[in-house]
Design a protein that fits this description.
Layout: H1 2-8, E1 11-15, H2 22-31, E2 43-51, E3 54-61, H3 65-68, E4 78-86, H4 93-104, E5 114-119, H5 129-135, E6 146-150, H6 159-172
Parallel strand pairs: 1-3, 1-4, 4-5, 5-6
Antiparallel strand pairs: 2-3
Length: about 170
C-alpha cells in the first residue's frame, strides 16, 4: 500500500548550498522534531503527507561544493525544485545564485517550477525576502513558475505552507 502511494507522489528535489538547513528542514517536516544533522553525503529522502490524499516525495541532496557537480543526476522525474538559502548569510548569496543558475540551466528542469526558501528567518539579521530575491536574480526567471517564502527549519515556521505552495506550483505547471 505505502509503496504504490509513494511512487505516485510527485518528486520534489531540495537543493542549496551546504549549511543552508536542508536536512534540518526535511527532518522537521517529516518528524515535527529538530534533529541533529551532519553534512549530507549523498541524499536523504522521505514522503511528506500534505493531507489524506496528497503527498510529495522529497529528496534532500547534499550541498557541499564537491557534491554540486552530481546534482543533475537527481533531476529525473523532478516535478519541483526547492532551493534553500541561508537568509542570515549575505556573504554566500553570490555563490548560491551561481549554483541556482547552473542547476536551472539543466535540460531536465525546463518548465519545472521553483520554490526558494529563505531559511533561518528566525535569526535577527536575516535578509528580507526582497533582498534574497534580488541577490538570487529571481525576477529574471520569466520562463518558469517560481515563488519565494521565508521559513525557519529550526522553529518549523512556514514549512508546511511552503510545501502546500510547492504542490500548487506543480499542479499549475
Amino acid at each position: 500500500m505505502g509503496q504504490a502511494r509513494s511512487s505516485s507522489s510527485p518528486q520534489v528535489i531540495l537543493m542549496g548550498l551546504d549549511s543552508a538547513g536542508k536536512s534540518t528542514l526535511l527532518a522537521r517536516l517529516l518528524t515535527g522534531q529538530v534533529m541533529d544533522t551532519s553534512p549530507t553525503i549523498g541524499f536523504n529522502v522521505g514522503t511528506l503527507d500534505l493531507d489524506k490524499n496528497t503527498s510529495l516525495t522529497v529528496w534532500d541532496v547534499g550541498g557541499q561544493k564537491s557534491m554540486r557537480s552530481s546534482w543533475r543526476y537527481y533531476l529525473d522525474d523532478c516535478k519541483a525544485l526547492v532551493f534553500v538559502v541561508d537568509s542570515s548569510d549575505p556573504g554566500r548569496m553570490g555563490e548560491a545564485q551561481k549554483a541556482l543558475k547552473k542547476i536551472l540551466s539543466e535540460d531536465n528542469l525546463q518548465g519545472v517550477p521553483l520554490m526558494v526558501l529563505a531559511n533561518k528567518k528566525d535569526l535577527p539579521n536575516s535578509m528580507t525576502i526582497r533582498e534574497v530575491s534580488t541577490h538570487l536574480d529571481l525576477p529574471s526567471h520569466t520562463d518558469r513558475l517560481w515563488e519565494i517564502q521565508g521559513c525557519s527549519a529550526l522553529k518549523g515556521l512556514g514549512l508546511q505552507q511552503a510545501f502546500v505552495s510547492v504542490h500548487k506550483l506543480i499542479r499549475k505547471s
